[in-house]
Amino acid sequence: MKQIAVILYEGYCLCEITVALEMLRMADIPVTYFGVEKKAYRSEEGIVLQCEHTLDELDVDGYDGILLSGFMEENPTILKNELLKEKLRIFDQQKKVIGAISIAPLLLYNAGILKDRPFMCATNKQDLVEEGYALSCLQNMIDWDACCAEEDLKFIRHEHIITSVIYGFREWAMEIGRMLDIPVYPKSFGL
């Protein structure tokens, strides 16, 4: 049976992953919520979700994929979390589905996963350069301004990794469903 891990952190964006969560529920695929601590996390929308397990309890072998939403917090500690980086690298090495939306691709980038892969990210390259990222390392990133200029681009799928920005949340979710080989219902999600 397929299972999906979702990582929660302060200021996570629930609206970006709700279609994916509903699609997984419709397919009876269990979702388990992990966080740095086993506690309640408040979304940017103000909704509180209880984290079921800590990151150190995440056994990658038991999951078919992982989902990461964006976040509003500036310079959140989750970007520097070494355990999350390690878990993400294992998902990548095992070629399991990795879905990151909005600013969450930075979690993958910081884990070294996006080094030579194309990806979308809901920030501008110049902002990242000001935060210490090397512009030469962001060559494969389609930043917020470029995403907005290409309205038809809803997500980028490269192998088992799929990235998107907020306006592509439905198409991103449905592509995750296809990657997991589960039924998707475009009309249910307004497409």
Automatic annotation (TrEMBL):
GO cellular component terms listed in the entry, alphabetical order: cytoplasm
Keywords recorded for this protein, A-Z: Hydrolase, Protease
Organism (species): Longicatena caecimuris
Protein name, entry field: Putative intracellular protease/amidase
InterPro entries tied to this protein: Class_I_gatase-like (IPR029062), DJ-1/PfpI (IPR002818), Prot/Nucl_acid_deglycase (IPR050325)
Record flagged with keyword Mitochondrion: no
GO biological process: proteolysis
Positions of the DJ-1/PfpI domain: 2-135
GO molecular function: peptidase activity
Source domain of life: Bacteria
Presence of keyword Zinc: no
